[in-house]
């Protein structure tokens, strides 16, 4: 039997060696060395970092602005313009800003702003490292910038002191200035400056201007949804504008609402409700100066000339004007409709140009028209034009669809209408040698063709409930006009229209244009005659006259009356009422041209005046303002007050820096002023201004028409209000046959004055106590016998007639007895 194999021997375990005492000490020395090395390195790095920081601070602190200047913070403010009832009518600004103290800014605006712009505002020292890190993470996750790392203090620094260029040097300076601002101002002071300074888009600077621009509200009237939108804008006002991209604005608003929720200022329900709320934006048109554009420009020029551009646009003036908004609306309406009516008598110039027009040719001014477009009225904002576009009176753009013998079918885009021949029979070819009042179109096809783009006016339906839309052919006028209304007792301008459309021509024809006044200048001659002893009953022979050197070429001049005939012995009252040229020239020759010029200067005419007899017929160009001012003097009992548009001006502190006081100058006696008013009343009662009698109250005035009917005028007044109207072409071309002041200007004047006097009681012109009234003979101007036909006439006591008219009295005696010399 084999022997059993013995078990193999177990390996011997090697005993662990204990470290030598010297090796242990060596390890701890290394660790201690490394620790000390790191500590020294850290200290050295800190010292180096501090040194670098100090170096950077010292280097970039050189020439930094003094942040303590913010204690005298006076930003650019809006200059506001007010009417005579202190209603705001317009603004001038470079930065539209309305200052609000921090105490008046609602907490919800501050909370929303801080939540989205600087949630650690009250804890940081001007730079928020935690905020920078948080913004970096959020922007990385979103893939685009949703939150910035700059604090409100840094944003304020950039806005107030630095450029917006993205350079490392600018960021360093921004940080230094932010630290300095935090050292010198409280958090409330920083917030107040920021919320009044920052830009919110569409010209709005500061939260109050933003609230008014976007919602037409004050900041204390905003709900949380509106507050969130306002707070959302400073990051990128144009990018997040609800006017430009509503969807993007809603997303940005929702981000602000989430931040408000995270910071505990609103709950989940409030956030959802505000996020779902649609935008209810205010009317941005309300900020435009549509109510009185020519008057606003007149005011702007006055302030700029007197105080300079900087004060006009930056100083926050409050300018209280004399403009009456009701009168102004009536004036704009009268000029707009009156010029359109006048222009129709001058003929039809053809279709419009634009999308849908059949004619490929045309000028660029007409190219913006399209079918269905509503033409806005100048007295209302454009946003109102589209409302109820088929109401009677509205003017639309349409396209000719079909032409029949007696009517035209017009497409308005969403519906059709009809123009009857009688509602377009004015549309003859333009011809200034034809009287447009009587020359009529025979067939619609003579003016229109299918596809033409035209303007039409909606007419009243013939029957109540009629669905067919009745239209009339319209056209944009080329003729221009102006209206100026002044309160005689104060000289205050109550309404001003300087042209048909301010957007197309800013030239103010009420103030800037010098045009020949024609016969509207004659009252100056007659007023001067009264001062020299003439009376309303003075007889002057209306007969032919040939004058030498009256014109610039020194040729003989043979003036005529408008009627092209002579009227023999004529009383002064009749001569002015019927605008007799020859009588006026003879009076001027008697008084002397120099005497007339001196009297005109006394009344306030500053324009150059011709030193010849043609002056009597209004050959020297003047402004509408000058002529209207003279008629105001007649109405104001001989006291002249220069027309003006400003009552007083306040600076931003509310101090009055300019106030217009009543500076009346007695330039003619009250008695002669009344006599002149009485003579001008006869123009309305029996003369060239008879249409004006439709006003239904005491009124005085005078027409004016220049050679070839180039200019048409009417200047008139009641005891309460004076107004002047001019109509003409900017190119000094004739208006047309018989386009006199009576035809072209009076309808505009009358429409305006009817509206302006709706709420005024009827009053008469006051009679000065020094006058006497006599019964006179119509033919001789002498006293009328008892029982004989007579006229009542007023006189100064010393000029009243004392002799009675007799059948044997010769014509020469009449002239001699009534001669002032």
Short synopsis of the structure:
The protein is of the alpha+beta class and 821 residues long. The protein is built from 21 helices and 29 strands. The strands form nine sheets. It has a five-stranded mixed β-sheet with strand order 2-1-6-22-23.
Number of strands: 29
Continuous helix count: 21
Summed over residues and divided by their number, the pLDDT gives a mean of 86
Strand-residue proportion: 15-25%
Characterize the overall form: elongated
Radius of gyration: 41 Å
Strand order of the largest sheet: 2-1-6-22-23
What's the helical proportion of residues?
25-40%
- How would a textbook summarize the main sheet? 5 strands, mixed
- Going by helix content, strand content and strand pairing, the class is alpha+beta
Query: Span between N and C termini?
Result: 187 Å
Low-confidence stretches: 359-366
Q: Could you please describe the fold and organization of this structure?
A:
By secondary structure, the protein is of the alpha+beta class. It is built from 21 helices and 29 strands. The strands form 9 sheets. Strands 2-1-6-22-23 form a 5-stranded mixed sheet. It has a 5-stranded mixed barrel with strand order 10-11-12-14-13. A hairpin with a 4-residue loop joins strand 15 and strand 16 (492-497). Helix 1 (21-61) packs across helix 5 and helix 4 packs across helix 5. It is elongated, with a radius of gyration of 41 Å. It starts with 20 loop residues before the first helix and ends with a helix. The relative contact order is 0.08. Residues 359-366 have low confidence and may be disordered.
């Amino acid at each position: 039997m084999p022997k059993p194999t013995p078990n193999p021997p177990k390996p011997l375990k090697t005993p662990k060696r204990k470290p030598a005492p010297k090796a242990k000490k060596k390890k701890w020395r290394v660790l201690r060395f490394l620790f000390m090395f790191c500590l020294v390195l850290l200290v050295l790095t800190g010292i180096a970092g501090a040194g670098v920081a100090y170096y950077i601070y010292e280097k970039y602190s050189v020439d930094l602005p003094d942040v303590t200047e913010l204690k005298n913070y006076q930003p650019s403010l809006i200059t506001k313009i007010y009417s005579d009832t202190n209603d705001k009518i317009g603004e001038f600004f470079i930065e539209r800003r309305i200052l609000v103290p921090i105490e008046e800014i609602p907490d919800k605006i501050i909370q929303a702003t801080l939540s989205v712009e600087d949630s650690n505002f009250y804890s940081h020292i001007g730079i928020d490292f935690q905020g920078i890190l948080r913004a970096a993470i959020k922007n990385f996750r979103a893939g685009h910038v949703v939150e910035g790392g700059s604090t409100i203090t840094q944003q304020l620094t950039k806005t107030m002191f630095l450029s917006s260029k993205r350079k490392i040097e600018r960021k360093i300076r921004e940080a230094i200035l932010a630290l300095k601002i935090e050292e010198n101002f409280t958090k409330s002071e920083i917030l107040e400056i920021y919320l009044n300074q920052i830009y919110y888009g569409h010209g709005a600077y500061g939260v109050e201007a933003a609230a008014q621009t976007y919602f037409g509200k004050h900041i204390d009237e905003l709900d949380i949804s509106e507050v969130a939108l306002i707070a959302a804008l400073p990051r990128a006002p144009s990018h997040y504008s609800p006017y430009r991209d509503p969807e993007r604005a809603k997303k940005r608003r929702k981000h602000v609402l989430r931040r408000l929720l995270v910071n505990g200022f609103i709950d989940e329900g409030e956030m959802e409700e505000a996020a779902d709320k649609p935008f209810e934006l205010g009317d941005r048109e309300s900020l435009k100066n549509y109510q009185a554009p020519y008057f606003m420009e007149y005011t702007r020029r006055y302030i700029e000339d007197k105080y300079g551009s900087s004060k006009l646009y930056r100083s926050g003036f409050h300018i209280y004007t004399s403009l009456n908004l009701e009168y102004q609306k009536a004036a704009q309406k009268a000029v707009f409709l009156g010029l359109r009516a006048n222009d129709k008598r001058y003929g039809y110039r053809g279709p419009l140009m634009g999308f849908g027009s059949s004619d490929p040719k045309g000028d660029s001014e007409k190219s913006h028209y399209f079918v269905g477009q509503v033409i806005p009225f100048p007295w209302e904002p454009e946003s109102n034009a589209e409302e109820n576009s088929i109401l009677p009176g509205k003017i639309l753009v349409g396209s000719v669809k079909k032409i029949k013998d007696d009517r035209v079918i017009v497409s308005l885009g969403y519906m059709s209408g009809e123009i009857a021949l009688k509602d377009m029979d004015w549309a003859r070819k333009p011809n200034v040698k034809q009287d447009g009042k009587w020359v009529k179109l025979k067939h619609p096809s003579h003016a229109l063709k299918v596809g033409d783009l035209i303007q039409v006016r909606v007419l009243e339906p013939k029957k109540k409930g009629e669905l067919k839309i009745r239209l009339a052919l319209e056209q944009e006028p080329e003729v221009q006009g102006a209206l100026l209304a002044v309160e005689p007792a104060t000289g205050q301008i109550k309404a001003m229209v300087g042209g048909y459309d301010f957007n197309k021509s800013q030239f103010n024809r009420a103030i800037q244009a010098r045009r020949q006044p024609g016969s509207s200048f004659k009252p100056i001659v007659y007023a001067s005659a009264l001062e020299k002893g003439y009376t309303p009953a003075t007889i002057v022979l209306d007969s032919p006259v040939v004058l030498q050197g009256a014109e610039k070429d020194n040729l003989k001049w043979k003036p005529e009356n408008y009627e092209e005939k002579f009227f023999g012995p004529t009383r002064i009252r009749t001569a002015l009422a019927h605008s007799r040229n020859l009588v006026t020239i003879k009076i001027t020759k008697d008084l002397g041209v120099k005497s007339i010029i001196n009297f005109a200067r006394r009344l306030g005419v500053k324009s150059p005046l011709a030193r010849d007899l043609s002056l009597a017929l209004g050959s020297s160009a003047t402004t509408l303002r000058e002529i209207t001012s003279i008629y105001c003097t007649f109405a104001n009992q001989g006291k002249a007050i220069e027309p003006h548009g400003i009552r007083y001006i306040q600076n931003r502190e509310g101090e009055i820096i300019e106030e217009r006081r009543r500076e009346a100058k007695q330039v003619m006696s009250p008695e002669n002023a009344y006599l002149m008013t009485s003579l001008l009343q006869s123009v309305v009662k029996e003369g060239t201004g008879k249409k004006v009698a439709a006003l239904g109250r005491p009124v005085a005035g005078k027409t004016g028409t220049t050679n070839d009917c180039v200019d048409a005028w009417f200047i008139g007044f009641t005891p309460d209000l004076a107004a002047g109207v001019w109509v003409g072409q900017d190119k000094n071309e004739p208006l047309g046959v018989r386009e006199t002041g009576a035809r072209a200007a009076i309808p505009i004047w009358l429409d305006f004055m009817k509206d302006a006097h709706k709420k005024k009681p009827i009053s008469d012109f006051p009679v000065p106590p020094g006058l006497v009234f006599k019964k006179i003979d119509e033919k001789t101007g002498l006293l009328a016998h008892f029982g004989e036909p007579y006229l009542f006439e007023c006189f100064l006591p010393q000029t009243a007639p004392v002799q009675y008219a007799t059948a044997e009295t010769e014509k020469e005696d009449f002239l001699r007895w009534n001669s002032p010399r």
